[in-house]
Amino acid sequence: MANVTLTIDGQKVTVPAGTTVLDAARSAGIFIPTLCHDPAIPGFGACRLCIVEIPGMRNLPASCVTTVAEGMVVHTASEAVIEARRTIIDLLLANHPQDCLTCEKNGDCRLQDYAFMYGVRQTSFHGERKNHPLDDSNPYIIRDQNKCILCGKCVRTCQAVPGRSVIDFGYRGFNTRVVTAMDVPLGESDCVYCARCVAVCPVGALTYKPMAGKGRTWEMQKKSVTCTFCESGCTFELNIRDGKVIGITAKEPGPGRPLCLKGRLGLELLYVEKPMTPMLKKDGQFVPVSWAEALGLEGLVDRMKEVEGQP
Amino acid sequence: MSCQCECQDEVARKEALEKVFEQYRGTKGALIPLLQEAQEIYGYLPGEVMQRIAAELKVPFSKVFGVATFYAQFHLKPRGRNIIRVCQGTACHVRGAARVFESVSEKLGVGRNETTADLRYTLETVACLGACGLAPVMMVNDDTHGRLTPERAAEVLEQYE
Amino acid sequence: MKSLMDKCCEKCFHSPASPCKDYIKCRQQGPLCHEDDNCRAKYKAFLEDIHLPADSSKRQILICAGTGCTSSGSRKLVDALVEELKKQGLQDKVAVKITGCHGFCEQGPLMIVEPQKIFYTRVQVEDIPEIVAGHLVGGQVVERLLYVDPATGEKSLTYETVPFYAKQKRLVLANCGHINPEEIADYVANDGYLALTKALFEMTPEQVIEEVKISGLRGRGGAGFPTGMKWSFVRAAEGDKKYVVCNADEGDPGAFMDRSVLEGDPHAVLEGMLICGYAVGADEGYIYVRAEYPLAIHRLKVAIAQAEECGLLGDNILNSGFNFRIKIKAGAGAFVCGEETALLTSIEGNRGMPRPRPPFPAQKGLWGKPTNINNVETFANVLLIIRNGGAWYAAMGTEKSKGTKIFALTGKVNNTGLVEVPMGITMREIIFGVGGGIRDGKKFKAVQIGGPSGGCLPEEQLDLPIDYESLTSAGAIMGSGGLVVMDETTCMVDVARFFLNFTQAESCGKCTPCREGTKRMLEILTRICEGQGKEEDIETLERLARVVKSTALCGLGQTCPNPILSTLRYFRDEYEAHIRDKRCPARVCQALLVYTINAEKCTGCGSCARACPAGAISGEKKQPHVIDISRCIKCGNCMQKCKFGAVEKA
User: Fold this and answer.
1) Is there a contact between B71 and C332 if contact means CB atoms under 8 Å apart?
2) Which has the least CB within 10 A, A178, C19, C257, C552?
3) Which CATH number applies to C184-394?
4) Pick from C480, C493, C631: which is nearest to C563 by CA?
5) ipTM of the assembly?
């Protein structure tokens, strides 16, 4: 494909035609903040944080959905861009709890990073805020809708696996929120707790329940491991604190990498010093089960015992 | 008796829905028309009906729910035959609209934006009906009832079947 | 339906199975393929049955059956009239015809007696006997039902002399109110489908597009994109399947021109879409119409069925080899679906959330196929251009905005209704000419143009020639063409709040600036109106408005700050009065009003005290009363009740 040369912040950048301004800037090492952009499922264009100034274009276009053109001039940090980004962060904070001190995501939160980067100390608006109960209805994922910034990454990643689509956007306007069918808690939905959504959530709206209270993000070292339970070869991360593995989290899901609960639990059993008790839903209730059952190995384990002659 | 009658109604509704499904089979973008037709049949969109639409169209149930909650036309709860709107304007407030609301709510056994089990009434509130001179006021369907007392408000409802 | 599919004689080979390609023209100018006086007479009779000649002994009564007149009782009028005519034995001499909207709904139900075009307003069932006995039998016009100009007090005898109509240039609306919209023959008798015949048999698709380009027609849905250019993009786009979509999701409160055209002249929209389909190479069309317009949907269904029956929709239209079908999609109650990408997503069966552009619908539209979207009024303009030529059309209007535009004139103006005028006319001519000036002799303050995304223009902008560019630079937009006239008793902060309240509720919630920003702007405006405004509020509002306008994903978000920005631009002092002096100069914002009783006017009748819900008024019988400001809830009851004008607000 033909190449296109454009100027970003005074720097000449050459990229293949059809590239987005965002990717072009990033390829040249120029930073543009994003919240809703997911390289695996691009083109959503909702958070508007990645807006840039392009002389000749009406308004400030979102760089994630604007394609480059020959000779295009892009300003990623002009006065108007900075004002807009600050205001958008300000608006998000106006509808977001300010409880960073106790938030599991503290230290690994995009909203926090950008607020720091653009110097938005606190919101300038004091009006209505979201007020949803905490969804703590299952043993794996904690959902705090009040922290949700509606970037939709969870919705899109859930829809990326055929047959899942457990969540979608519901309601409208200021009342928009991510919902399950009939807006039931996650524990009552068809969710299979693969936690792709947790892996992509940029804020603290979706977190791992088994990791809750076990440490701050900066105390954890991460180590990638590949799951060998099936041929998909999904990547997970060991979360290590003081030399001990305290939990398993999913790495960003890629195409053809479904991630699944069984795989995560298997790794939990393999690596974590004190693995959680596996829980499965039976008749609508989560109940503790044996590891063999959780991993779907009951028949095998029984047969192994039989063949090897152990009681 | 009434149970049997309702069951028959339910059978008729299911048949009607099935006919609609047939009519739209193979039509692109049928979700919204199906929701419209289903609401026409049921008066609102029960969860099971949305689930059946999802199955019929082979789309996720969460998507059907997302679409149904996006558009103002769709109701997810049954609405009563009579819609009661108790005014919450300032004048009504001062003259005891809260007590009027409580009295109606108590009589019907439902809260705000709820519908009685027999589908006779839906209880709603409204910011102001612009009939402050008659405060406290409530509207039932298109009739405005003013100068209410908690007792009279409850009485007024009797005339609406 | 009067059949259009009959042969005129044995020589005619026209039939429903194989329609003659020239039959439309033949009905209007025929017979074309042979000489026959009998046939000529038949054709003449067909036309005269619909257009009564001025000297006709027959009479025809047109009764408006648009949404406005229907809700004021015009259906009952039709029944009563038919009944009364039968009673008087006139049923064969007087035809009763329903029509679409005249755009003068406030005066409805409307009735026109043809061929003289006597124009009756606010006709009630009780008036029918007098109309039949007095006018139809006795030849005496019923004076009291004639239109009286509120500005001059003069009566108008005929439709054409009513000042409201006389000053308009009704081209797109020409058929509305004058033909039966449920009768395709009426449309054909008024040169209907002539443009389609011309396009199909005398022009190539490229020539059609060229003609539309020459006309200078721009999209009437709001943004004003050149229609011919849009069509050429769709024609050039690669794809075996293309769509034509008509945006009939008219959602601006107060705007009803699209509804009027759909109800009054549905075939014009079908014909425009057909021509477009031919030009861009599409074989399927959708009309996305609000579910709140049941009558428009009904008329469209009737029109589509009739057009199909007459070989004007379907396969091999008029033996030309061109196929085109039109389907109706009813909206489900979401204003944002008027935005083109949201509309497409909604047709596909999704939440009506806009998509980023590019790709534009011309490249990737409905189900990923190249799609041409125009609104109702745009399509209704197309056939005029093809029929009369692009140059004819381009002769009207300004340099960059051609043709006519329909405005919905409402508010504090004497004549309210649909107004079709040439582009380039001034606001003053519309409001004071067609509209007959401000109601009750009050002073003009502002006109809000372009619906909830539009702006408010003050008196000094009244002589601005209206076109797309001039309105945008003045801080408003053409939008769909809503015009709300405001007088000195309108509070501009309250107006901004009103529109924001609307757009906030209709935000789809996808992008951050619109979802969160409209909410905060509305909260600030509400606070100012309630007397809780803070000094920094204006600055915050300006910043929010600027950011939402420049960063929102779709047109709804990008334009929703316009009411704030334009009122801040022209009426900043009103904001300051609310915030600094806690005063509403127009005396609208309840929380900022102080009610007092003028002791000199008060007779002490006590009716105010009885009306007061808060018990804030006291006084001895027959002595001046007083209002206890601390208890007053500012409901205004006392003022309404006082017969002596003693209660004053400041």
Assistant:
1) yes
2) C19
3) 3.40.50.11540
4) C493
5) 0.95
